[in-house]
């Protein structure tokens, strides 16, 4: 239940203890005060549910709540990406398809759907219009007519280059394939099934007003808000902490039947790197990725005039975090990760209990030591009849495999992702690489022959 804690503050304890909630609220309060944010909400999601909520500042004279709307900007893109992946799973398109197959008549036709989703198409960041975030939008047909060769800034596939235009184009492609608007499609296929009823295209009460805060004085300026029209898929939506908590759970794997879990995992795979050699920030298929403090996060940030927002999910820990703020700039950039650190420090996640399981004797016989030449590998059984093949002591090619109907095994990840493992009586064949029980077994089918060990 809401607990008042100082002027202009709401806090909801949920699944965390009072000491943890106090520490989380203090971090939120420091952000709001020191960064001079008119109002700020944040939430922690654990195991699919909101574990903590905090609000600071004022919206129309009252503290913000989990039902207060803020504009979420580019978090919209991640939702549009889900619509594209649903079309892919239905067979309506392939990620390798050129855009011209589904949206003909543009000079962008050679760009693939995957390149647009991952911001690797080389397309310009902003549309050839007035500053689109601050002016009324134009129809999709008008935007497409304005796009020409000048909007292609890099060779497709060469590098990551964030493109708002790319998602405007993807939104129009979704609209044409579905025979309705991208927004109605999103409502019917994603928002309604997930129960995100407070996520809308335009603000509804209660909502925060977007402000710019003067850099040298404690005064604010109201920022404009318009229907972005054709650019809507790049950043139109408004949402609440409660709805974004459900979205964080979705990104973390609780898909609610909206998307196949395997497809969502595919979206979380790195397709481009945003910061060069350091690789702390990247992009999957419509999802931003970050590596920080040993965590691997997936989600998206959002920015529109007067608003900042972020939602992250840590799949391995089953936790999510988000914030919503009505300020154009000036926040630290570490609020979400600091909140996760506080949660981990005060209430670290307990590992799942180990329990014995049944094992097929034929699979059990495959476990143990195998050798790729002189290098020892271990085969282990995984839950759900899977196998892992990994070097003893680490430092080499490791992959997981799942059984196929024809008796072979398909690689899920690592070096052998997508490759085939075949089990013979005396060896394993992984895409022509032979593994034997003994290192270079003299009676094993090792290509090139084995002459025997000698001094």
UniProtKB/TrEMBL annotation:
Residue ranges constituting the Beta-lactamase-related domain according to the UniProt record: 32-330
Pfam families listed in its UniProt record: Beta-lactamase, DUF7586
Domain of life: Bacteria
Domain DUF7586: 360-437
Protein's name according to its UniProt entry: Beta-lactamase family protein
């Amino acid at each position: 239940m809401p607990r008042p804690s100082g002027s202009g503050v709401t806090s909801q304890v949920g699944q965390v203890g009072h000491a943890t909630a106090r520490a989380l609220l203090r971090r939120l309060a420091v952000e709001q005060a020191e960064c001079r944010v008119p109002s700020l909400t944040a939430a922690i999601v654990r195991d699919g549910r909101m574990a903590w909520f905090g609000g600071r500042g004022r919206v129309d004279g009252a503290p913000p709540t989990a039902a207060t709307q803020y504009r979420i900007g580019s978090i919209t893109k991640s939702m549009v990406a889900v619509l594209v992946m649903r079309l892919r799973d239905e067979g309506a398109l392939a990620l390798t398809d050129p855009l011209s197959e589904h949206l003909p008549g543009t000079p962008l036709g050679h760009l693939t759907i995957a390149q647009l989703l991952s911001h690797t198409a080389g397309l310009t960041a902003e549309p050839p219009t007035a500053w689109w975030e601050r002016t009324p939008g134009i129809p999709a047909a008008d935007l497409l007519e304005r796009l020409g060769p000048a909007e292609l800034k890099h060779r497709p596939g060469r590098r990551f280059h964030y493109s708002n235009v790319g998602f405007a184009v993807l939104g129009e492609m979704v609209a044409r394939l579905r025979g309705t608007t991208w927004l109605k499609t999103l409502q019917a296929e994603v928002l309604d099934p997930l129960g995100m009823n407070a996520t809308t295209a335009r603000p509804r009460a209660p909502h925060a007003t977007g402000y710019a805060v003067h850099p040298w004085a404690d005064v604010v300026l109201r920022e404009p808000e318009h229907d972005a029209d054709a650019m809507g898929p790049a950043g139109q939506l408004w949402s609440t902490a409660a709805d974004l908590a459900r979205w964080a759970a979705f990104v973390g794997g609780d898909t609610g039947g909206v998307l196949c879990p395997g497809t969502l995992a595919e979206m979380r795979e790195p397709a481009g790197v945003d910061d060069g050699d350091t690789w702390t920030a990247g992009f999957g298929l419509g999802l931003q990725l970050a590596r920080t403090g040993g965590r691997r996060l997936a989600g998206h940030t959002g920015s529109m005039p007067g608003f900042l927002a972020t939602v992250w999910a840590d799949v391995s820990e089953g936790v999510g975090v988000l914030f919503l703020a009505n300020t154009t700039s000036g926040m630290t950039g570490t609020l979400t990760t600091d909140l996760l650190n506080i949660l981990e420090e005060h209430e670290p996640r307990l590992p799942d209990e180990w329990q014995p399981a049944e094992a097929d004797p034929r699979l059990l016989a495959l476990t143990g030591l195998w050798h790729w030449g002189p290098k020892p590998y271990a085969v282990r059984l995984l839950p759900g009849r899977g196998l892992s093949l990994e070097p003893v002591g680490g430092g080499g090619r490791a992959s997981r495999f799942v059984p196929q109907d024809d008796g072979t095994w398909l690689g899920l990840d690592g070096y052998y992702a997508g490759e085939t493992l075949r089990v013979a009586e005396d060896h394993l064949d992984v895409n022509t690489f032979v593994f034997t029980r003994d290192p270079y077994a003299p009676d094993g089918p090792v290509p090139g022959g084995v002459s025997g060990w000698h001094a």
